[in-house]
Amino acid sequence: MALVAMFTAALAVAISHLVSWRRSRIPRLRLLTGTRSQQAAIVLAVRPVVRELLPGLEAAGLEVNSIALLPTLAGSAGEPLQAQVEQVHGTRAFIIRLAHMVGGILRRPEEVAGALAEELLGLYRDAAAVTIVRQTPAAIPASILVAAESVAARKNGRSGVSPQPRVSAKDETEGKVVAFSPNPLGSSTNGQAT
């Protein structure tokens, strides 16, 4: 019994050390502004960004010590900023500050999370010496879509004619009679004999 008790105590100590080590690797989010509901919404929006992007930064040898949400941020010339990244004493550790209001306008939680994602990706690009070689616009021109559809149609063995858009069901009138063409086998497709 004493052996089982010692094993259980040792296991509990090991788990607590593992949890505290893991918790120390995750930067502390400091919310210095906003109501409780605003803070809760920001935490929900920021959590997936931190979960997805911090492991890549850690793999690149960078560390984010803290992420702070401040009422506003201003640059050296007094211009409003949405985010600011500070390097800690020339090390590979950083502090990220996010503005809750920019230009007098309260930012939505998704905007705060987006600003954090941009800063984390920027740190990763700098650390990994990544160079962007191609960028895709958010809106794809119609000429590119038509060309892509015709290329896909040719690859499938069909003709290069792009498909015509379908009429939506709400545009069709109810009770419309459609005449079917005769079947090449000699029987009508309406179920009537010829």
Summarize the structure in words.
This protein is an alpha/beta fold. The protein has a domain at 38-125. 42% of the residues lie in helices and 16% in strands. The chain is built from four helices and eight strands. It has helices at residues 2-25, 36-59, 109-128, 142-155; strands at 28-31, 63-70, 73-74, 80-81, 83-87, 93-99, 101-102, 105-106. It has a four-stranded mixed beta sheet with strand order 1-2-6-5, with helices on one face. Strands 3-4 form a two-stranded antiparallel ribbon. Helix 2 (36-59) runs parallel beside helix 3 (109-128). The termini are far apart. The model has no long low-confidence stretch (mean pLDDT 77).
Entry summary:
By secondary structure, the protein is an alpha/beta fold. It has four helices and eight strands. The model has no long low-confidence stretch (mean pLDDT 77).
Percentage of β-strand residues: 15-25%
Low-confidence parts lasting 5 or more residues at pLDDT below 50?
Answer: none
| Rg calc | 30 Å
By secondary-structure content and strand pairing, the structural class works out as: alpha/beta
- Distance between the amino and carboxyl termini: 92 Å
Can you count the helices?
4
Count of β-strands:
8
For the biggest β-sheet, the strand order reads: 1-2-6-5
Characterize the overall form.
extended
H/E element sequence: HEHEEEEEEEHH
Let me know the average pLDDT. 77
Helix content: 40-55%
- Please describe the biggest sheet, giving its number of strands, its sense, and whether it closes into a barrel: 4 strands, mixed
